[in-house]
Amino acid sequence: MPRRRRCRRVASQPRFTYFKPIGIRAMDLEEVELGMDEFEAIRLKDYLGLEQNEAAFEMGVSQPTFHRIIDEAHRKVAKALIDGLLLRMSREDQVVIVEKESYRIFECFDCESRWSVDYGIPKPMKCPNCGSTLLARVKED
Ligand SMILES: [Zn+2]
């Protein structure tokens, strides 16, 4: 099966390379590889709790693309858990590693104030300065 070339932003390399069921030698296990973009999708949406549109924004992909990536990631992780596979984290060099801040910045269209919100905290509904609901995420690129 030919592999598509990928160029997607991920914030960090996985810290762990393999997960396997205990008591079975790795060489006796079927292996499934989680792509770095799939790992990143899980990290952003499932681990940090970002909304899908925020997670897609972080990775620099469209929402439909993000949806495909995380669907495939969930399918692989589920198969590894249920069937007892060796789950290997890919370290592809096609992806762009970006140093990410631990917060994102929002801007108010009414009073033009800007403020930061840590990841894991939901995106704000109102401007903390004037109470306006006309807010936008500021692109840092
Ligand atoms: Zn405001």
UniProtKB/TrEMBL annotation:
Q: Read off the InterPro entries from this record.
A: UPF0251
Superkingdom of this entry's organism?
A: Archaea
Task: Name one matching Pfam family.
Answer: DUF134
Fetch the PANTHER family from UniProt: PTHR37478, UPF0251 PROTEIN TK0562
Homology family: Belongs to the UPF0251 family.
Its name, as the record gives it, is UPF0251 protein EF806_05060
